[in-house]
Batch of 4 targets.
Target 1
Amino acid sequence: MDFFLAGCQGAGLAVAAGALAGAPGRRGTAGVVLLVLAVIVGAALYGLALENVDHPAWPGWPIGGLIAAGTFLVVRGVAEGAGRRGGDAFTAGLIALAALAIAGLSLLLKPFGLVALLAVVYLGLARRRRAGRKYEGLRTLR
């Protein structure tokens, strides 16, 4: 049970790292640097969460890195969309606060990390579905 709870905590911390790095909504060189930073921090935090319950840290490194990268991509898309509509700094601040709240709740309530991960997966799938329907009416005119 300790391993599962440590995995949940690590997932929450990796989600927080990816969300914090994706909050500015940057692309290009700055986006790549933020993505690499998110992967490194997410991997390290997941590994530390496992190490705290006397498990080896190395299995958490790739898992934490993947979670942080996926979260970064989803959050960056949300932040970019908000930036196009004029809510750039405010949205980035809200996302950063949410990321810090996720990290804090993951430290206090270990299973919360799993909830945060599922929420990011749901948000990513919902955005993908919505993007597919965006021009659906125009495709039927062909």
Target 2
Amino acid sequence: MKTFWLSFVPLFIAVDALGVLPIFIGLTMGLEVHRRRVILLQSFITALVVALIFIVVGPVGLRFIGITISDFMIAGGILLMVIAFTDLVTGEKRQRMVDIETMGAVPIGVPLITGPAVLTTTLLLVDAYGMLITAAAVIVNIGIAVTVFWFAEPISRLLGDNGSKVLSKVASLFLASIAVMLIRKGIIAIITEHF
């Protein structure tokens, strides 16, 4: 049980469900409840499948096809930057830049729930505690994230329309900062690996 909690805590921080919640609200603002629930299911399945495949395949499979964690960081950072930049500069709603049909998969499932931080953390945890404990911690943490998102509607009602918009703008600024951090860390990691 102790090893489970040792795996759970770093993954809880890496998933950061409460930190991602404003971004989820911003992406799904104005959508029908049914559509939001479909997006939640899609995000849960995508985040879980990607994380579990990554645990099983691990760095060996990535090295085989020439993809590194640094590549994940840069690609995820660029995707998040485009979404944040569009909302902050043009004022367009983010769902216009994201296909509503696949929004649950990308960007919510990956990279917002299962992003570079989660993938990197799972690599370290598999090495320390094994696949089964890490997989259990991943499943519980992704379940927690989706549960938090499930209550986005009452939270959004509590904030009101203006409060949600302000929170969405602030979240976009943080999202842009996270994107810059991911890109920076990815570039530094690539430079470090090659020099």
Target 3
Amino acid sequence: MTGESMVGGRLLGAIRSHAGVAVGVGVALIVAGVLSICAPFVAGLWVMVMIGLLLMIGGLALALLALRVGGFGAGLPVLLMGVLMIFAGLYMFSRPVAALASMTLVLAAYLVVSGIVEFFAGIRSRGEAGSGWMVAVGIITLLLGVMLWRQFPVSGAWAIGTLFGIKLLMTGITMTSIGSAVRQGMGKVEAALKS
């Protein structure tokens, strides 16, 4: 075996082994997504707890940075931002149900505004490729936002967890598809190298 083919074989092996990891991660994300969709309230609560925890950690880091810079002088705005992040994170961490309801309202408002913008952007670009899809996505996004808003507070129990689950599911399918495609491609490359 020549040095060049040995290096090529190692490279193909490394890529193939990572393709397997991509498929494994994809399958795990698909399972997590399905579980999140099946139990959206629990998933939504976990999302709020994790966001709260991350906000507290980020706020603490900002506050420490501000104190190193001079917390009551030049670093005062950073210190205030850090303290605000700590309190927001503590609130979300200690009261995930209330945070879930608040985030659902924010999500509904975002979807309404985003849907309107996408709809009018699609209308303005009539005749261009994809403008019809943009109008359709805008209408669907707007309707989803209105639906969340009208069903509030009931929507707070399922919206975040369901959407999080759908995102996990889509990401898992993408990762699995990419990993499988890489595996198939590597098989073709190996066959070509052997001939």
Target 4
Amino acid sequence: MRGMRFSTLATISGVGFALLGCKDAAKAPTAVDRMAPPETPRAAVVSLDPFTYRAAIDPYKILQLPDFMMQSRRRSDIVMQRSVLTPGLGPWVTHPGPSFVYVIQGQIKLIEFSDKEGCTETAVRGPGDIFFVEGDHIHRAFVVGSESAVLQVTRFNIPVGGALTIPVADPGC
């Protein structure tokens, strides 16, 4: 049992390395140019260009008692993206698996819809904030202000080779 847990953990840890060689050829969002102040050396400028890396992972179960469990019973993709969203409202979408989102730049909130709650909005999130979006959850992003939002997103349980984002009809919010 202990060997199986180590094997599972080693597999999941190795995904980060595998993702480096699996750049998705899908069309990336529009990039945001980030200019460094004149006194900053060019080598110190961090690129905020969009990217997508994805890799398939065999079924796994992470159990860190007492308060964390994550499991996939089928082979699925794990996707790491840097997304750049322009100011204003985005389209209504869902994602097939859960997503962890870290805000690098800009301000963003989600407009969400569920049959139970109807239309709701999240708080505005800015640089350094982290939030979670459940899989199959209907939502749209709203980039607040005039600066594009740059997000680092990790998506789990995506069907192997499947769509990351699925457009949905406007629920009337």
